[in-house]
């Protein structure tokens, strides 16, 4: 009786110890964690003094921190943790407004563009070639449409 209790205690101690041990060659998967507002230099360079809060929200997105005690300041915070290396990258950006709700100044890790960048027109059109058909391929008729199967007909009957 006493021996069985001793064996039970020893076995349960060994099982608990086995659960806490992890060999060094076993690496668990850790995900990349991205939090906050992603601000690019292009987004910040579109800011101009005198813009309204709605215009700033349209360009940068909703601020992560809108403090009750500092209503004239919006804080944009971004943090990225690499899952494999554990390296943390963080950025902070603040937009300050005057009493009328107009953008007064900005500050933080991302810099505002200079006057030449802000006034110069930027061509944002882009031509994308989706592939062109030769005249012979364009003249070919399309293959007939396949009739839906049982599941497809059932979904059509339900209205999906």
What keywords describe this structure?
160 residues, five-stranded antiparallel β-sheet, 5 strands, Beta-lactamase Inhibitory Protein, Chain:B, domain 1, 19% strand, single chain
Structure characterization notes:
The chain is of the alpha+beta class and 160 residues long. The chain has a domain at 47-110: Beta-lactamase Inhibitory Protein, Chain:B, domain 1, CATH 3.30.1450. The protein contains six helices and five strands. The protein has helices at 2-20, 41-45, 53-60, 115-119, 135-139, 150-158, and strands at 33-36, 65-66, 73-81, 88-97, 103-108. Strands 1, 2, 3, 4 and 5 form a five-stranded antiparallel beta sheet that branches. Strand 4 (88-97) and strand 5 (103-108) form a beta hairpin. The mean pLDDT is 81.
In short:
This protein has six helices and five strands, in the order H-E-H-H-E-E-E-E-H-H-H.
Set out the fold topology.
Layout: H1 2-20, E1 33-36, H2 41-45, H3 53-60, E2 65-66, E3 73-81, E4 88-97, E5 103-108, H4 115-119, H5 135-139, H6 150-158
Antiparallel strand pairs: 1-3, 2-3, 3-4, 4-5
Distance between the termini: 68 Å
CATH architecture of the domain at 47-110: 2-Layer Sandwich
Low-pLDDT sequence parts:
none
Compute the CA-based radius of gyration: 30 Å
Structural class: alpha+beta
In helices, the fraction of residues equals 25-40%
CATH topology assignment of the domain at 47-110: Beta-lactamase Inhibitory Protein, Chain:B, domain 1
* Portion in beta strands: 15-25%
What characterizes the major β-sheet? 5 strands, antiparallel
Overall, the morphology is flat
The count of strands amounts to: 5
Instruction: Give the SSE string.
Output: HEHHEEEEHHH
Count of DSSP-assigned helices: 6
| Integer average pLDDT | 81
Task: Please report the first level of CATH classification, the CATH class of the domain at 47-110.
Answer: Alpha Beta
């Amino acid at each position: 009786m006493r021996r069985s209790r001793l064996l039970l205690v020893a076995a349960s101690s060994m099982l608990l110890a086995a659960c806490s041990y992890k060999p060094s060659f076993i690496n668990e998967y850790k995900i990349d964690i991205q939090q906050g507002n992603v601000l690019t230099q292009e987004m910040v360079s579109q800011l101009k003094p005198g813009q309204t809060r709605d215009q700033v929200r349209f360009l940068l997105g909703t601020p992560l921190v809108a403090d009750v005690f500092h209503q004239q300041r919006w804080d944009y915070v971004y943090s990225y943790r690499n899952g494999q290396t554990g390296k943390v990258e963080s950025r902070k950006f603040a937009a300050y407004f005057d009493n009328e709700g107009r953008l007064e100044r900005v500050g933080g890790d991302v810099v505002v563009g200079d006057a030449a960048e802000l006034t110069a027109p930027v061509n944002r059109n882009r031509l994308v070639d989706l592939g062109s058909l030769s005249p012979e391929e364009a003249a070919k008729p399309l293959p007939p449409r396949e009739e839906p199967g049982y599941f497809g007909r059932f979904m059509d009957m339900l209205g999906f």
